[in-house]
């Protein structure tokens, strides 16, 4: 791979450091005594005291015998003051004149030892007396600038580049790191809520012989030693229920799930879900539990139950509104789904302009109607309750209406955040529901589960107490709590399409000459002046510029009476 000019210069600096006896990647521990944020918020405590910091060099302002630089550590940024005589003890002042001024680049990791003080303009800084090279960066970071008004220039903002190079994104875009710190706060808050109530965190298999617990298309792999297919987990529900059968009263898990379906701004094929199951409870208890849990989590992440998501102000403070699915569909469509046949639901959906097909059963048709006409209307946290039985094969039949189940989903800003049941614990009823799912799979519904989990049914036959279960999409909840409209913003490394390989272009001598002249003039130059300076014949000039243009390396624009050639590749 061809190196850029900056990459070549950085490699040359690497060699020069080693020639000076400085190892650019030392093995020894570098012990720090403070973080930038501690010094900036507790200046009185640190003033005049010696500190040792480490981090990236993010800026240099060379001013003769003394210079200022910006150091970014794990907690923030701080200015450091570097004087020639303070860090160099030889006559040539090599550490300052050569290492600091010439061989250190933006992005390099350094360690500094010095005392804390305020500059004449009142900026808290560290007066450096010792400087250590900790790691040489061979690729340049994007230079993101902020003017006096706080306006960002040359931002590293292209989403695809940010997601592919999250390590760069985290380095130059400080707010991104804050998002992931809040993600950890969310998990900690939820974990503490469960642990304080005595529930047990557990682990269940990722590789499963049957893809159960949800209606989704699985990823399939193969176990060579056993010579059997295995499925990446689409849900952990059935394993957690087995633990309830085994005598645990409350179990939960943060699980990595995998679904071989589409990718968009709210779906990633690998995602994190939390599921909790508590014995002797029902879905009414779970609604109260859920709204208290999410209020606790919102405060744990942001310090308040109120959050902003896009144009909406959301309040996670309990209690939340509760609306049955039947009432929701009736309210927004005028259609009553109660007692309707599959044919009637199909005709109604078609009449509403919803894209449905003959493979869909009653549950899927109702789901499509609700999704198209209702769910977008629920902005504040709202429990949608009492789903039709056909939509919920693992849920207990409603105690008052045999056509319904004791299920709720929590909607926020038109999106599902949580899903919960009074769990089905009748093994005979459960087998019949599984068989219904098999018939849907045979009909062509690729999200229906076409395999009966006999071991799970066997577990139910040993007896499972009345139980309520809750599942929460952690990534989507994180989106709401941090005002991010894309799931990729709350995943460190979201799934991406394969990166296109850059085609290496061999340039002729004439093409290289034009490129070098443009680079020497800030990547653009008057067309006539450039042609004259190149001293190329008309024929060679035409051939070289035509080739560079075809390779999308240059473009020509008009500025008044002049034509400007710009290097763009």
Can you walk through the features of this model?
By secondary structure, this protein is of the alpha+beta class. α7 packs across α8, α14 packs antiparallel against α15 (454-461) and α17 crosses α18 (527-534).
General shape:
globular
Please, what is the average pLDDT? 93
Q: List the strand order in the largest sheet.
A: 8-12-13-20-19-18-17-16
Structural class: alpha+beta
Unreliably modeled segments: none
Oligomer: single chain
What's the helical proportion of residues? 25-40%
Head-to-tail CA distance between termini: 15 Å
Topology diagram in text:
Elements: H1 5-19, H2 36-41, H3 43-46, E1 50-63, E2 66-73, E3 76-83, H4 84-87, H5 94-103, E4 109-118, E5 124-135, E6 145-146, E7 152-153, H6 159-164, H7 166-172, H8 174-196, E8 200-201, E9 207-208, E10 220-223, E11 228-232, H9 237-245, E12 250-258, E13 270-279, H10 283-302, E14 306-309, E15 312-315, E16 321-324, H11 325-333, H12 342-351, H13 362-373, E17 382-385, E18 407-412, E19 415-422, H14 427-443, H15 454-461, E20 467-473, H16 474-482, H17 509-519, E21 524-526, H18 527-534, H19 538-550, E22 554-559, E23 562-567
Parallel strand pairs: 3-5, 8-12, 16-17
Antiparallel strand pairs: 1-2, 1-4, 2-3, 4-5, 6-7, 9-11, 10-11, 12-13, 13-20, 14-15, 17-18, 18-19, 19-20, 21-23, 22-23
Helix pairs in contact: 7-8, 8-10, 12-13, 14-15, 17-18
What attributes does this structure have?
569 residues; alpha+beta; five-stranded mixed β-barrel; 19 helices; 25% strand
């Amino acid at each position: 791979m061809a190196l850029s000019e900056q990459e070549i210069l950085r490699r040359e600096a690497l060699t020069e450091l080693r020639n000076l006896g400085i190892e650019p990647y030392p093995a020894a521990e570098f012990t720090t005594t403070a973080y930038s944020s501690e010094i900036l918020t507790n200046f009185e405590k640190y003033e005049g005291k010696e500190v040792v910091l480490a981090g990236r060099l993010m800026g240099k302002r060379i001013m003769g015998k003394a210079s200022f630089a910006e150091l970014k550590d794990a907690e923030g940024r701080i200015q450091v003051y570097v004087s020639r005589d303070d860090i160099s003890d030889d006559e040539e002042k090599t550490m300052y004149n050569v290492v600091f001024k010439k061989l250190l680049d933006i992005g390099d990791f350094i360690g500094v030892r010095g005392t804390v003080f305020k500059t004449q303009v009142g900026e808290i800084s560290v007066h450096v007396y010792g400087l250590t090279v900790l790691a040489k960066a061979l690729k340049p970071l994007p230079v993101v600038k902020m003017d006096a008004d706080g306006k960002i220039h040359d931002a590293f903002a292209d989403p695809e580049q940010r997601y592919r190079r999250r390590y760069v994104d985290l380095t130059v875009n400080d707010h991104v790191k804050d998002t992931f710190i809040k993600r950890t706060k969310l998990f900690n808050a939820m974990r503490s809520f469960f642990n304080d109530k005595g529930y047990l965190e557990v682990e269940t298999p990722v590789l499963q012989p049957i893809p159960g617990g949800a209606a989704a298309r699985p990823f399939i792999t193969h176990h060579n030693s056993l010579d059997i297919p295995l499925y990446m987990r689409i849900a952990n529900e059935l394993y957690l229920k087995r633990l309830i059968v085994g005598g645990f009263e409350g179990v939960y898990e943060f699980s990595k799930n995998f679904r071989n379906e589409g990718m968009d701004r709210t779906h990633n094929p690998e995602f994190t879900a939390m599921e909790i199951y508590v014995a002797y409870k029902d879905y009414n208890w779970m609604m109260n539990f859920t709204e208290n849990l999410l209020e606790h989590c919102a405060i744990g992440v942001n310090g308040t139950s109120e959050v902003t998501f896009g144009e909406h102000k959301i309040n996670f403070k309990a209690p939340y509104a509760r609306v049955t699915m039947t009432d929701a569909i009736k309210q927004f469509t005028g259609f009553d789904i109660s007692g309707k046949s599959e044919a009637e639901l199909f005709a109604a959906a078609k009449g509403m302009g919803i894209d449905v097909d003959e493979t869909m059963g009653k549950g899927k048709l109702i789901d499509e109607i609700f999704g198209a006409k209702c769910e977008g209307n629920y902005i504040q946290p709202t429990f949608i309750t009492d789903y039709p039985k056909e939509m919920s094969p693992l849920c207990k039949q409603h105690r008052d209406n045999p056509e319904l189940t004791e299920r709720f989903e929590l909607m926020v800003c038109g999106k599902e955040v949580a899903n919960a049941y009074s769990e089905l614990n009748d093994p005979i009823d459960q087998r019949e529901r599984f068989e219904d799912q098999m018939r849907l799979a045979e009909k062509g519904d690729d999200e229906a589960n076409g395999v009966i989990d006999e071991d799970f049914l066997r577990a139910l036959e040993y007896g499972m107490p009345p139980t309520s279960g809750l599942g929460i999409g952690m990534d989507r909840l994180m989106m709401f709590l941090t005002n991010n409209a894309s799931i990729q913003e709350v995943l460190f490394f979201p799934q991406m399409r394969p990166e296109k390989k850059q085609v290496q272009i061999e340039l002729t001598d004439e093409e290289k000459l034009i490129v070098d002249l443009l680079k020497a003039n800030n990547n653009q130059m008057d067309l006539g002046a450039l042609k004259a300076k190149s001293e190329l014949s008309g024929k060679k000039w035409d051939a070289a510029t035509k080739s560079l243009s075809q390779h999308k390396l240059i473009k020509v624009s008009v500025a008044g009476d002049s034509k400007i050639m710009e290097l763009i590749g």
